[in-house]
Protein backbone atom coordinates (compact mmCIF):
# COMPACT_ATOMS: atom_id res chain seq x y z
CA UNK A 1 0.00 0.00 0.00
CA UNK A 2 1.43 3.33 -1.06
CA UNK A 3 0.22 6.14 1.20
CA UNK A 4 1.33 9.66 0.38
CA UNK A 5 -0.24 12.97 1.30
CA UNK A 6 0.49 16.59 0.73
CA UNK A 7 0.85 18.27 4.15
CA UNK A 8 -0.06 21.58 2.52
CA UNK A 9 -3.41 20.27 1.31
CA UNK A 10 -5.63 19.35 4.27
CA UNK A 11 -8.44 18.26 2.00
CA UNK A 12 -6.50 15.24 0.80
CA UNK A 13 -6.44 13.85 4.35
CA UNK A 14 -10.16 13.45 4.61
CA UNK A 15 -11.77 11.29 5.80
CA UNK A 16 -8.79 9.27 7.09
CA UNK A 17 -8.16 10.90 10.47
CA UNK A 18 -7.18 9.17 13.69
CA UNK A 19 -6.25 11.20 16.76
CA UNK A 20 -2.74 10.38 18.03
CA UNK A 21 -4.19 9.72 21.50
CA UNK A 22 -6.19 6.83 20.07
CA UNK A 23 -3.18 4.90 18.88
CA UNK A 24 -2.74 1.91 21.17
CA UNK A 25 0.96 1.49 20.52
CA UNK A 26 3.23 3.83 18.64
CA UNK A 27 6.26 1.59 18.94
CA UNK A 28 5.09 -1.08 16.53
CA UNK A 29 5.45 -0.85 12.78
CA UNK A 30 1.81 -1.82 12.32
CA UNK A 31 -0.03 0.12 15.01
CA UNK A 32 -3.43 -1.16 16.14
CA UNK A 33 -6.11 1.43 16.72
CA UNK A 34 -8.74 1.57 19.46
CA UNK A 35 -12.42 0.84 18.94
CA UNK A 36 -13.12 4.55 19.51
CA UNK A 37 -10.84 5.56 16.65
CA UNK A 38 -12.27 2.87 14.40
CA UNK A 39 -15.85 3.95 15.18
CA UNK A 40 -15.00 7.58 14.46
CA UNK A 41 -13.47 6.64 11.13
CA UNK A 42 -16.52 4.58 10.19
CA UNK A 43 -18.82 7.50 11.02
CA UNK A 44 -16.83 9.80 8.77
CA UNK A 45 -16.97 7.20 5.99
CA UNK A 46 -20.70 6.81 6.53
CA UNK A 47 -21.39 10.51 6.20
CA UNK A 48 -19.16 10.78 3.14
CA UNK A 49 -21.23 8.06 1.43
CA UNK A 50 -24.50 9.96 1.91
CA UNK A 51 -23.56 12.22 -0.98
CA UNK A 52 -21.59 11.87 -4.19
CA UNK A 53 -17.80 12.33 -4.10
CA UNK A 54 -18.23 15.74 -5.72
CA UNK A 55 -20.42 17.08 -2.86
CA UNK A 56 -18.29 18.60 -0.08
CA UNK A 57 -21.24 19.36 2.24
CA UNK A 58 -20.65 16.43 4.60
CA UNK A 59 -16.85 16.59 4.62
CA UNK A 60 -15.19 17.41 7.94
CA UNK A 61 -14.10 21.09 8.05
CA UNK A 62 -10.44 22.02 7.94
CA UNK A 63 -10.21 23.30 11.51
CA UNK A 64 -10.88 19.86 13.02
CA UNK A 65 -7.86 18.35 11.30
CA UNK A 66 -4.65 18.12 13.31
CA UNK A 67 -1.25 19.42 12.33
CA UNK A 68 0.62 17.57 9.57
CA UNK A 69 2.98 15.91 12.06
CA UNK A 70 0.00 14.42 13.91
CA UNK A 71 -1.72 12.87 10.95
CA UNK A 72 -2.28 9.13 10.85
CA UNK A 73 -3.86 7.12 8.06
CA UNK A 74 -6.48 4.60 9.09
CA UNK A 75 -6.59 1.46 6.99
CA UNK A 76 -9.69 -0.73 6.59
CA UNK A 77 -7.37 -3.61 7.50
CA UNK A 78 -7.39 -2.33 11.10
CA UNK A 79 -4.04 -0.61 11.24
CA UNK A 80 -2.86 2.99 11.47
CA UNK A 81 0.10 4.36 9.59
CA UNK A 82 1.88 7.58 10.55
CA UNK A 83 2.49 9.99 7.71
CA UNK A 84 6.05 11.18 8.21
CA UNK A 85 6.63 13.53 5.31
CA UNK A 86 5.64 14.21 1.74
CA UNK A 87 7.22 16.16 -1.02
CA UNK A 88 4.14 16.95 -3.05
CA UNK A 89 0.51 16.08 -3.51
CA UNK A 90 1.19 12.86 -5.35
CA UNK A 91 3.27 9.75 -4.84
CA UNK A 92 7.00 9.39 -4.49
CA UNK A 93 7.52 6.79 -7.22
CA UNK A 94 9.90 7.65 -10.02
CA UNK A 95 8.96 7.10 -13.65
CA UNK A 96 11.00 3.88 -13.75
CA UNK A 97 9.11 2.45 -10.78
CA UNK A 98 5.76 3.54 -12.24
CA UNK A 99 6.53 1.91 -15.59
CA UNK A 100 7.61 -1.29 -13.86
CA UNK A 101 4.46 -1.34 -11.69
CA UNK A 102 2.20 -1.03 -14.74
CA UNK A 103 4.17 -3.72 -16.59
CA UNK A 104 4.06 -6.04 -13.59
CA UNK A 105 0.31 -5.46 -13.09
CA UNK A 106 -0.56 -6.12 -16.72
CA UNK A 107 1.57 -9.22 -17.19
CA UNK A 108 -0.58 -12.15 -16.14
CA UNK A 109 -1.85 -15.54 -17.22
CA UNK A 110 -2.60 -14.25 -20.73
CA UNK A 111 1.07 -14.64 -21.64
CA UNK A 112 0.62 -18.42 -21.57
CA UNK A 113 -2.08 -18.21 -24.28
CA UNK A 114 -0.42 -15.72 -26.65
CA UNK A 115 1.31 -18.43 -28.78
CA UNK A 116 -2.04 -20.26 -29.12
CA UNK A 117 -3.71 -16.98 -30.09
CA UNK A 118 -1.09 -16.37 -32.80
CA UNK A 119 -1.72 -19.87 -34.10
CA UNK A 120 -5.46 -19.21 -34.25
CA UNK A 121 -4.99 -15.91 -36.09
CA UNK A 122 -2.06 -16.88 -38.28
CA UNK A 123 1.56 -15.86 -37.79
CA UNK A 124 1.55 -12.61 -39.79
CA UNK A 125 -1.92 -11.47 -38.75
CA UNK A 126 -1.12 -12.41 -35.14
CA UNK A 127 1.86 -10.05 -35.04
CA UNK A 128 -0.18 -7.27 -36.67
CA UNK A 129 -3.06 -7.76 -34.21
CA UNK A 130 -0.77 -7.61 -31.16
CA UNK A 131 0.59 -4.28 -32.39
CA UNK A 132 -2.82 -2.85 -33.30
CA UNK A 133 -4.53 -4.02 -30.10
CA UNK A 134 -1.68 -2.59 -28.06
CA UNK A 135 -2.09 0.82 -29.73
CA UNK A 136 -5.89 0.76 -29.44
CA UNK A 137 -5.99 -0.26 -25.78
CA UNK A 138 -3.27 2.30 -25.00
CA UNK A 139 -5.38 5.06 -26.52
CA UNK A 140 -8.46 3.97 -24.58
CA UNK A 141 -6.36 3.82 -21.41
CA UNK A 142 -5.16 7.36 -22.17
CA UNK A 143 -8.80 8.45 -22.39
CA UNK A 144 -9.41 6.86 -18.95
CA UNK A 145 -6.49 8.79 -17.44
CA UNK A 146 -7.78 12.08 -18.90
CA UNK A 147 -11.44 11.43 -18.05
CA UNK A 148 -11.31 13.07 -14.59
CA UNK A 149 -9.80 16.31 -15.89
CA UNK A 150 -12.65 16.79 -18.36
CA UNK A 151 -15.15 17.28 -15.51
CA UNK A 152 -15.43 21.02 -14.81
CA UNK A 153 -15.90 22.81 -11.47
CA UNK A 154 -15.51 19.64 -9.35
CA UNK A 155 -12.57 18.34 -7.35
CA UNK A 156 -11.96 14.91 -8.88
CA UNK A 157 -8.48 14.34 -7.43
CA UNK A 158 -9.66 11.39 -5.32
CA UNK A 159 -11.93 9.85 -7.96
CA UNK A 160 -11.47 6.47 -9.58
CA UNK A 161 -12.81 5.58 -13.01
CA UNK A 162 -16.09 4.08 -11.60
CA UNK A 163 -16.73 7.49 -9.98
CA UNK A 164 -16.34 9.10 -13.40
CA UNK A 165 -18.76 6.55 -14.88
CA UNK A 166 -21.26 7.36 -12.12
CA UNK A 167 -20.93 11.10 -12.82
CA UNK A 168 -21.76 10.64 -16.52
CA UNK A 169 -24.17 7.69 -16.44
CA UNK A 170 -25.67 7.82 -12.94
CA UNK A 171 -26.52 4.63 -11.09
CA UNK A 172 -26.35 2.67 -14.35
CA UNK A 173 -22.70 3.60 -14.71
CA UNK A 174 -22.01 2.70 -11.10
CA UNK A 175 -23.66 -0.73 -11.23
CA UNK A 176 -22.51 -1.63 -14.72
CA UNK A 177 -18.90 -0.76 -13.85
CA UNK A 178 -19.26 -2.99 -10.78
CA UNK A 179 -20.65 -5.81 -12.94
CA UNK A 180 -17.87 -5.69 -15.52
CA UNK A 181 -15.24 -5.31 -12.82
CA UNK A 182 -16.57 -8.47 -11.18
CA UNK A 183 -16.46 -10.24 -14.55
CA UNK A 184 -12.77 -9.43 -14.89
CA UNK A 185 -11.99 -10.49 -11.30
CA UNK A 186 -14.01 -13.71 -11.30
CA UNK A 187 -12.78 -14.54 -14.81
CA UNK A 188 -9.20 -14.18 -13.62
CA UNK A 189 -9.92 -16.36 -10.58
CA UNK A 190 -11.46 -19.07 -12.77
CA UNK A 191 -8.42 -19.02 -15.07
CA UNK A 192 -6.19 -19.25 -11.99
CA UNK A 193 -8.08 -22.29 -10.72
CA UNK A 194 -7.77 -24.09 -14.07
CA UNK A 195 -4.06 -23.30 -14.27
CA UNK A 196 -3.39 -24.22 -10.64
CA UNK A 197 -5.09 -27.58 -11.23
CA UNK A 198 -2.92 -28.07 -14.31
CA UNK A 199 0.32 -27.10 -12.56
CA UNK A 200 -0.46 -29.08 -9.42
CA UNK A 201 -1.28 -32.16 -11.51
CA UNK A 202 1.94 -32.03 -13.53
CA UNK A 203 4.03 -31.20 -10.45
CA UNK A 204 2.58 -34.09 -8.47
CA UNK A 205 3.09 -36.42 -11.41
CA UNK A 206 6.73 -35.39 -11.77
CA UNK A 207 7.43 -35.83 -8.04
CA UNK A 208 5.70 -39.24 -7.88
CA UNK A 209 7.61 -40.56 -10.88
CA UNK A 210 10.91 -39.20 -9.56
CA UNK A 211 10.46 -40.63 -6.05
CA UNK A 212 9.41 -44.07 -7.32
CA UNK A 213 11.98 -44.08 -10.14
CA UNK A 214 9.30 -44.59 -12.76
CA UNK A 215 9.85 -43.85 -16.43
CA UNK A 216 6.54 -42.83 -17.94
CA UNK A 217 5.70 -41.85 -21.51
CA UNK A 218 2.45 -40.08 -22.31
CA UNK A 219 0.42 -41.65 -25.11
CA UNK A 220 0.61 -38.59 -27.30
CA UNK A 221 2.64 -37.73 -30.40
CA UNK A 222 5.87 -35.94 -29.73
CA UNK A 223 9.43 -35.36 -30.80
CA UNK A 224 12.39 -37.43 -29.70
CA UNK A 225 15.51 -36.30 -27.90
CA UNK A 226 16.29 -34.41 -24.74
CA UNK A 227 14.14 -31.37 -25.71
CA UNK A 228 10.91 -33.22 -26.23
CA UNK A 229 7.78 -31.41 -27.40
CA UNK A 230 4.40 -33.14 -27.29
CA UNK A 231 0.98 -32.67 -28.89
CA UNK A 232 -1.61 -33.49 -26.20
CA UNK A 233 -4.63 -32.60 -28.34
CA UNK A 234 -3.64 -34.70 -31.34
CA UNK A 235 -5.55 -37.82 -30.30
CA UNK A 236 -8.87 -36.06 -29.70
CA UNK A 237 -10.58 -32.70 -29.59
CA UNK A 238 -9.65 -32.21 -25.92
CA UNK A 239 -6.45 -32.84 -23.99
CA UNK A 240 -6.09 -36.34 -22.56
CA UNK A 241 -6.00 -36.71 -18.83
CA UNK A 242 -3.75 -39.34 -17.31
CA UNK A 243 -3.21 -41.74 -20.19
CA UNK A 244 0.38 -42.93 -19.99
CA UNK A 245 2.52 -46.05 -20.24
CA UNK A 246 4.93 -47.18 -17.51
CA UNK A 247 8.20 -48.77 -18.64
CA UNK A 248 9.70 -49.66 -15.26
CA UNK A 249 9.27 -52.88 -13.33
CA UNK A 250 7.87 -51.06 -10.32
CA UNK A 251 4.50 -51.49 -8.61
CA UNK A 252 1.97 -51.40 -11.47
CA UNK A 253 -0.99 -51.46 -9.06
CA UNK A 254 0.35 -48.50 -7.09
CA UNK A 255 0.90 -46.51 -10.27
CA UNK A 256 -2.62 -47.22 -11.53
CA UNK A 257 -4.04 -46.24 -8.13
CA UNK A 258 -2.05 -43.00 -8.26
CA UNK A 259 -3.39 -42.20 -11.73
CA UNK A 260 -6.92 -42.86 -10.53
CA UNK A 261 -6.68 -40.48 -7.57
CA UNK A 262 -4.43 -37.93 -9.26
CA UNK A 263 -6.46 -36.86 -12.26
CA UNK A 264 -6.14 -33.45 -13.92
CA UNK A 265 -9.87 -32.74 -14.15
CA UNK A 266 -11.63 -35.28 -11.92
CA UNK A 267 -9.73 -35.01 -8.63
CA UNK A 268 -6.97 -32.34 -8.52
CA UNK A 269 -9.35 -29.33 -8.86
CA UNK A 270 -11.17 -30.55 -5.74
CA UNK A 271 -7.95 -30.97 -3.75
CA UNK A 272 -7.26 -27.24 -4.13
CA UNK A 273 -10.45 -26.42 -2.21
CA UNK A 274 -8.93 -27.63 1.06
CA UNK A 275 -6.09 -25.12 0.73
CA UNK A 276 -7.62 -22.08 -0.95
CA UNK A 277 -11.15 -21.85 0.43
CA UNK A 278 -9.96 -21.20 4.03
CA UNK A 279 -7.53 -18.56 2.73
CA UNK A 280 -10.35 -16.77 0.91
CA UNK A 281 -12.26 -16.37 4.18
CA UNK A 282 -9.47 -14.46 5.92
CA UNK A 283 -10.47 -10.92 6.78
CA UNK A 284 -7.14 -9.53 5.62
CA UNK A 285 -5.03 -11.11 2.87
CA UNK A 286 -2.28 -8.52 3.31
CA UNK A 287 0.26 -11.25 4.10
CA UNK A 288 0.02 -12.58 0.54
CA UNK A 289 0.76 -9.16 -0.95
CA UNK A 290 4.37 -9.66 0.12
CA UNK A 291 4.74 -12.34 -2.55
CA UNK A 292 3.83 -10.08 -5.49
CA UNK A 293 7.45 -10.14 -6.59
CA UNK A 294 6.92 -13.78 -7.59
CA UNK A 295 4.88 -12.54 -10.55
CA UNK A 296 7.90 -10.70 -11.90
CA UNK A 297 10.17 -13.68 -11.25
CA UNK A 298 7.73 -16.00 -13.05
CA UNK A 299 7.52 -13.81 -16.16
CA UNK A 300 11.31 -13.38 -16.30
CA UNK A 301 11.76 -17.13 -15.95
CA UNK A 302 9.21 -17.80 -18.71
CA UNK A 303 11.15 -15.49 -21.04
CA UNK A 304 14.34 -17.36 -20.10
CA UNK A 305 12.65 -20.75 -20.68
CA UNK A 306 11.32 -19.67 -24.08
CA UNK A 307 14.76 -18.43 -25.12
CA UNK A 308 16.54 -21.64 -24.09
CA UNK A 309 13.94 -23.87 -25.73
CA UNK A 310 14.09 -21.90 -28.97
CA UNK A 311 17.88 -22.10 -29.00
CA UNK A 312 17.68 -25.91 -28.85
CA UNK A 313 14.70 -26.42 -31.14
CA UNK A 314 15.61 -23.92 -33.85
CA UNK A 315 13.22 -22.00 -36.10
CA UNK A 316 10.53 -23.85 -38.06
CA UNK A 317 8.59 -21.52 -40.35
CA UNK A 318 6.95 -21.73 -43.76
CA UNK A 319 4.69 -19.06 -45.19
CA UNK A 320 1.34 -20.17 -46.60
CA UNK A 321 -0.74 -17.03 -46.94
CA UNK A 322 -4.26 -18.44 -47.16
CA UNK A 323 -3.92 -22.23 -47.35
CA UNK A 324 -2.73 -24.71 -44.76
CA UNK A 325 -0.99 -28.06 -44.98
CA UNK A 326 -0.32 -30.86 -42.53
CA UNK A 327 2.28 -28.92 -40.54
CA UNK A 328 1.68 -25.18 -40.98
CA UNK A 329 -1.24 -22.79 -40.66
CA UNK A 330 -2.13 -19.91 -43.00
CA UNK A 331 -0.73 -16.46 -42.31
CA UNK A 332 -4.27 -15.07 -42.13
CA UNK A 333 -7.12 -17.06 -40.56
CA UNK A 334 -10.80 -16.36 -39.93
CA UNK A 335 -10.30 -17.31 -36.26
CA UNK A 336 -8.35 -14.10 -35.55
CA UNK A 337 -11.03 -12.72 -33.12
CA UNK A 338 -9.95 -15.40 -30.64
CA UNK A 339 -6.61 -13.60 -30.39
CA UNK A 340 -8.24 -10.18 -30.05
CA UNK A 341 -10.32 -11.52 -27.15
CA UNK A 342 -7.20 -12.76 -25.39
CA UNK A 343 -5.38 -9.49 -26.09
CA UNK A 344 -8.22 -7.42 -24.66
CA UNK A 345 -7.55 -9.01 -21.27
CA UNK A 346 -3.78 -9.13 -21.84
CA UNK A 347 -3.67 -5.32 -22.22
CA UNK A 348 -6.38 -4.66 -19.62
CA UNK A 349 -5.43 -2.26 -16.83
CA UNK A 350 -8.09 0.39 -17.38
CA UNK A 351 -9.95 -0.12 -14.09
CA UNK A 352 -6.89 0.63 -11.93
CA UNK A 353 -4.58 2.75 -14.09
CA UNK A 354 -5.63 5.99 -12.34
CA UNK A 355 -4.57 4.57 -8.98
CA UNK A 356 -1.21 3.42 -10.31
CA UNK A 357 -0.44 6.76 -11.94
CA UNK A 358 -1.45 8.74 -8.86
CA UNK A 359 1.69 7.40 -7.20
CA UNK A 360 3.89 8.89 -9.93
CA UNK A 361 6.13 11.68 -8.62
CA UNK A 362 6.02 13.61 -11.90
CA UNK A 363 2.41 13.75 -13.01
CA UNK A 364 3.33 15.50 -16.25
CA UNK A 365 5.06 12.26 -17.33
CA UNK A 366 1.99 10.05 -16.87
CA UNK A 367 1.20 9.70 -20.57
CA UNK A 368 4.83 9.04 -21.47
CA UNK A 369 5.27 6.45 -18.71
CA UNK A 370 2.00 4.73 -19.61
CA UNK A 371 3.06 4.53 -23.26
CA UNK A 372 6.47 3.06 -22.36
CA UNK A 373 4.80 0.48 -20.08
CA UNK A 374 2.43 -0.56 -22.87
CA UNK A 375 5.36 -0.80 -25.28
CA UNK A 376 7.23 -3.12 -22.90
CA UNK A 377 4.15 -5.26 -22.31
CA UNK A 378 3.53 -5.59 -26.05
CA UNK A 379 7.20 -6.40 -26.61
CA UNK A 380 7.05 -9.16 -23.98
CA UNK A 381 3.93 -10.67 -25.51
CA UNK A 382 5.43 -10.48 -29.00
CA UNK A 383 8.68 -12.10 -27.90
CA UNK A 384 7.08 -15.04 -26.10
CA UNK A 385 4.36 -15.57 -28.72
CA UNK A 386 6.58 -15.31 -31.78
CA UNK A 387 9.45 -17.38 -30.36
CA UNK A 388 7.18 -20.23 -29.19
CA UNK A 389 5.29 -20.29 -32.51
CA UNK A 390 8.42 -20.06 -34.66
CA UNK A 391 10.42 -22.67 -32.72
CA UNK A 392 7.59 -25.20 -32.45
CA UNK A 393 9.00 -28.26 -34.30
CA UNK A 394 7.01 -28.49 -37.53
CA UNK A 395 7.54 -31.07 -38.88
CA UNK A 396 7.18 -33.60 -37.29
CA UNK A 397 4.40 -31.86 -35.32
CA UNK A 398 1.78 -29.53 -36.74
CA UNK A 399 1.51 -25.92 -35.59
CA UNK A 400 -2.09 -26.81 -34.70
CA UNK A 401 -0.62 -28.70 -31.74
CA UNK A 402 0.25 -25.46 -29.89
CA UNK A 403 -1.81 -25.61 -26.70
CA UNK A 404 -3.84 -22.86 -25.00
CA UNK A 405 -1.25 -23.10 -22.21
CA UNK A 406 2.03 -23.50 -24.09
CA UNK A 407 3.63 -25.25 -21.07
CA UNK A 408 1.33 -28.20 -21.88
CA UNK A 409 3.46 -28.78 -24.98
CA UNK A 410 6.30 -29.86 -22.72
CA UNK A 411 6.03 -33.21 -20.90
CA UNK A 412 5.64 -33.34 -17.13
CA UNK A 413 9.19 -34.72 -16.73
CA UNK A 414 10.77 -31.69 -18.41
CA UNK A 415 12.93 -30.05 -15.74
CA UNK A 416 12.67 -26.44 -16.93
CA UNK A 417 8.90 -26.72 -17.36
CA UNK A 418 8.64 -28.30 -13.91
CA UNK A 419 10.43 -25.30 -12.37
CA UNK A 420 8.14 -22.91 -14.29
CA UNK A 421 5.04 -24.73 -13.05
CA UNK A 422 6.31 -24.61 -9.45
CA UNK A 423 6.92 -20.86 -9.71
CA UNK A 424 3.55 -20.19 -11.27
CA UNK A 425 1.67 -22.50 -8.91
CA UNK A 426 3.04 -20.81 -5.78
CA UNK A 427 2.58 -17.33 -7.25
CA UNK A 428 -1.06 -18.03 -8.20
CA UNK A 429 -1.82 -19.53 -4.80
CA UNK A 430 -0.67 -16.26 -3.19
CA UNK A 431 -2.44 -13.98 -5.67
CA UNK A 432 -5.73 -15.92 -5.63
CA UNK A 433 -6.71 -14.78 -2.07
CA UNK A 434 -5.93 -11.18 -3.07
CA UNK A 435 -8.26 -11.41 -6.08
CA UNK A 436 -10.93 -12.93 -3.84
CA UNK A 437 -10.49 -10.09 -1.37
CA UNK A 438 -10.91 -7.49 -4.13
CA UNK A 439 -14.06 -9.23 -5.39
CA UNK A 440 -15.42 -9.41 -1.84
CA UNK A 441 -14.71 -5.73 -1.13
CA UNK A 442 -16.30 -4.54 -4.36
CA UNK A 443 -19.43 -6.70 -4.15
CA UNK A 444 -20.25 -6.94 -0.45
CA UNK A 445 -19.39 -3.34 0.32
CA UNK A 446 -21.70 -2.24 -2.48
CA UNK A 447 -24.63 -4.31 -1.17
CA UNK A 448 -24.04 -4.34 2.59
CA UNK A 449 -21.75 -1.36 3.20
CA UNK A 450 -19.17 -3.67 4.74
CA UNK A 451 -16.53 -5.86 3.12
CA UNK A 452 -17.00 -8.49 5.85
CA UNK A 453 -20.66 -8.32 6.98
CA UNK A 454 -20.49 -11.83 8.46
CA UNK A 455 -18.75 -15.16 8.06
CA UNK A 456 -21.86 -16.53 6.36
CA UNK A 457 -21.98 -13.80 3.68
CA UNK A 458 -18.28 -14.17 2.92
CA UNK A 459 -18.47 -17.98 2.87
CA UNK A 460 -21.42 -18.00 0.44
CA UNK A 461 -19.60 -15.64 -1.94
CA UNK A 462 -16.35 -17.60 -1.77
CA UNK A 463 -18.08 -20.95 -2.27
CA UNK A 464 -19.75 -19.55 -5.39
CA UNK A 465 -16.43 -18.28 -6.78
CA UNK A 466 -14.58 -21.49 -5.95
CA UNK A 467 -17.45 -23.54 -7.39
CA UNK A 468 -17.14 -21.67 -10.69
CA UNK A 469 -13.42 -22.41 -10.79
CA UNK A 470 -13.88 -26.11 -9.99
CA UNK A 471 -16.66 -26.46 -12.58
CA UNK A 472 -14.52 -24.90 -15.29
CA UNK A 473 -11.47 -27.02 -14.37
CA UNK A 474 -13.68 -30.10 -14.45
CA UNK A 475 -15.72 -29.52 -17.60
CA UNK A 476 -14.06 -26.71 -19.60
CA UNK A 477 -10.32 -26.54 -18.78
CA UNK A 478 -9.56 -24.26 -21.73
CA UNK A 479 -7.82 -21.15 -20.43
CA UNK A 480 -7.67 -19.56 -23.87
CA UNK A 481 -11.44 -19.73 -24.15
CA UNK A 482 -12.03 -18.42 -20.63
CA UNK A 483 -9.56 -15.56 -21.13
CA UNK A 484 -11.04 -14.44 -24.43
CA UNK A 485 -14.64 -14.57 -23.19
CA UNK A 486 -13.95 -12.66 -19.97
CA UNK A 487 -11.55 -10.28 -21.71
CA UNK A 488 -14.00 -9.37 -24.46
CA UNK A 489 -16.83 -8.96 -21.93
CA UNK A 490 -15.13 -6.69 -19.40
CA UNK A 491 -13.18 -4.98 -22.17
CA UNK A 492 -16.39 -3.97 -23.91
CA UNK A 493 -17.20 -1.64 -21.02
CA UNK A 494 -13.86 -0.52 -19.56
CA UNK A 495 -11.75 -0.51 -22.72
CA UNK A 496 -14.05 0.42 -25.60
CA UNK A 497 -17.43 1.84 -24.55
CA UNK A 498 -17.00 3.95 -21.39
CA UNK A 499 -13.76 5.79 -22.32
CA UNK A 500 -15.11 6.64 -25.78
CA UNK A 501 -18.58 7.67 -24.60
CA UNK A 502 -17.19 9.80 -21.77
CA UNK A 503 -14.90 11.62 -24.19
CA UNK A 504 -17.71 12.24 -26.70
CA UNK A 505 -20.11 13.48 -24.00
CA UNK A 506 -17.53 15.76 -22.40
CA UNK A 507 -16.54 17.26 -25.75
CA UNK A 508 -20.18 17.75 -26.68
CA UNK A 509 -20.93 19.55 -23.40
CA UNK A 510 -17.90 21.79 -23.96
CA UNK A 511 -19.02 22.52 -27.51
CA UNK A 512 -15.78 21.07 -28.93
CA UNK A 513 -16.99 17.82 -30.47
CA UNK A 514 -16.05 17.37 -34.12
CA UNK A 515 -17.41 14.91 -36.66
CA UNK A 516 -14.08 13.07 -37.13
CA UNK A 517 -13.76 12.59 -33.35
CA UNK A 518 -17.36 11.36 -33.12
CA UNK A 519 -16.90 8.89 -36.00
CA UNK A 520 -13.60 7.55 -34.64
CA UNK A 521 -14.98 6.90 -31.15
CA UNK A 522 -18.19 5.34 -32.44
CA UNK A 523 -15.98 3.06 -34.55
CA UNK A 524 -14.00 2.09 -31.41
CA UNK A 525 -17.25 1.20 -29.63
CA UNK A 526 -18.36 -0.91 -32.61
CA UNK A 527 -15.01 -2.69 -32.60
CA UNK A 528 -15.49 -3.65 -28.95
CA UNK A 529 -19.01 -4.89 -29.64
CA UNK A 530 -17.86 -6.90 -32.66
CA UNK A 531 -15.00 -8.34 -30.60
CA UNK A 532 -17.46 -9.64 -28.00
CA UNK A 533 -19.96 -11.04 -30.51
CA UNK A 534 -17.20 -12.79 -32.49
CA UNK A 535 -16.11 -14.78 -29.42
CA UNK A 536 -19.44 -16.63 -29.47
CA UNK A 537 -19.48 -17.18 -33.23
CA UNK A 538 -15.98 -18.63 -33.72
From TrEMBL:
One of its GO terms (molecular function) is L-amino acid transmembrane transporter activity. Pfam families: Aa_trans (PF01490). One of its GO terms (cellular component) is lysosomal membrane. The chain crosses the membrane at residues 96-116, 122-142, 175-195, 268-284, 291-315, 335-357, 369-390, 418-439, 451-476, 482-505, 517-537. Residues 94-205, 264-534 form the Amino acid transporter transmembrane domain. It is a multi-pass membrane protein. It catalyses: L-leucine(in) = L-leucine(out); L-glutamine(out) = L-glutamine(in); L-tyrosine(in) = L-tyrosine(out); L-asparagine(out) = L-asparagine(in). Keywords: Amino-acid transport, Disulfide bond, Endosome, Glycoprotein, Lysosome, Membrane, Metal-binding, Sodium, Transmembrane, Transmembrane helix, Transport. The keyword Metal-binding applies. InterPro entries: AA_transpt_TM. It is found in: Late endosome membrane; Lysosome membrane. Belongs to the amino acid/polyamine transporter 2 family. SLC38A9 subfamily. PANTHER family: AMINO ACID TRANSPORTER, NEUTRAL AMINO ACID TRANSPORTER 9. This is Neutral amino acid transporter 9. The lineage of its organism: Eukaryota, Metazoa, Chordata, Craniata, Vertebrata. The gene is Slc38a9.
